[in-house]
């Protein structure tokens, strides 16, 4: 009888047999009995490995494995090979795996028959029982033995003859919920895969599926191969019920989906409760804010209605401008948001404008220029739109204060300016000065450009400098702080009228200077210099030409008339006049005087007297300095060459001392000017070291000489190799490229500054 408890369709993993041997074994299958564990030779029983592992043949491959152990290497006896001997010499034990630690396996490949005709992996994992994962390495011999006995017991039949209990796997609700959350996150790619069209051609008939999930749920149709009839001792095999399995699986899936869907719905409802709770809180805050706003608006409305009631003519207690300002201050302080959002323009037009008109009805700006400035400044803070403070644009539709000033205050200003006389500028200037910080900028510009400037321009056109007793600067200059560059168009006609008036002018008339002097800082430097050169300098040149220089009887009026304009004309223009019209005559008189045996003491006084008539700024000019030095040279030559000079005692010494003194003064003045310039540059940040360090080596020597009270001055007319000679106390020196040379017995010797100071002391 056949043993149906043996595995069906078993494929041995041992040596491949021929077809004849397979046929003989099938014929004698009924007489054969399965090899039992006790019949296996002792040497072929699996032994524990050195690593603690053991060989675990599966139930299906044990018999085949036994045959493999017996026949392993049997073919070698028909050959001359010595492979078996070599393996044994290297430590190989038959029945164990290869390798140093016997970690190899005897049957590395084992075939496994699929249930149906599906593709690879369609019926689950296809791992064989003899894979490497079935031979875990254990940590101890006790564990290895226990694991071996457990695996070995699976080969034996249950002595009680009972069937193995099926193992069931359960899923908890929490696992389903977790799975549902994961699937929810991956819903997008699964949705795309669920819409893929799949054609299954693994069976006899072509089938079309519309998702990959339908492949795993398709029925396992049993093979159509004819079944063998049941024998007498044969046991019936189980029947496959794919429809029932499908329905059960479908019910399970539906139940799982319902659980997952209910969990998602519960989570959604909880989130909705939280969201609605927050919404309720927000709405309660909004409701509270709206209630507060309604209450504030009600109070604001009551105050506005009270103002309108008190503005009625029949009211016993009429509203005043000060009381109205206090009401608006209350609105701004206590109800700022409502006041800021309200239409202040309409509110001011309805309430404030009538009161403002009544307030200014008897106002004369020129008589009381400060009237209303405080109340208007208060209304400016109440009504002016904050958004317009960043620019000076005119927007009467959005700013109540600008509209108030333009419609209520501006008409009074227009009327008073129309009656105003420009020569009486004091009252109008005071009026605008007092209102300049209150009136909007664009309104003030309108007053100056459209009302004041046309009046001034018309008055300048009618002004005559020859007949008008009031100087023009007295009623033009007060407008400079307010109008500034706006007055530029008036300067050109003023200069033309002044030039016409100066055509017949003589320098003896000092009134011209009084008229022109106030305009020196008003006109630009270029226009002022051009005006002086064209209209004043020629007149002064004619006056100097008329000057007669007489040492015995000198008339200085013409000279005083010219020098009196020194601050009005530039230094260069004045120096040009003196070089051209004064010094030629003055030097000529000096030469003629020296040629007639003069008194040198009188000449010295005459020279010093004329030099004292000029200011230090004029004397510092190189041209004037050269002219006076030329006079000294003429005097020195006259003293040296004149016989009479020797007859007059002390004449040469006096002239030499005069020359020495004047040259020293010039040198000291130059040094002082250089120090002032250095200090000014240091103050302006141009030369930080200029105030402490001299500009050059000569200045350093001058500074050291002043510190030690040593006279340091140039020697007039003396040079060495083109270098100026100086006296440093009693020593004669010259400076060349930052080095001091001292005059020795035969040559010039370079020395240090400290040595020079020691020698001079």
Automatic annotation (TrEMBL):
Spans annotated as Disordered: 15-43, 113-144, 215-238
GO molecular function term, any single one: nucleic acid binding
GO annotation, cellular component aspect: U2-type post-mRNA release spliceosomal complex
Domain G-patch: 79-125
GO biological process: spliceosomal complex disassembly
Biased composition (Basic and acidic residues): 33-43
Comp. bias (Acidic residues): 22-32
Family assignment from sequence similarity: Belongs to the TFP11/STIP family.
Protein name (record): Tuftelin-interacting protein 11
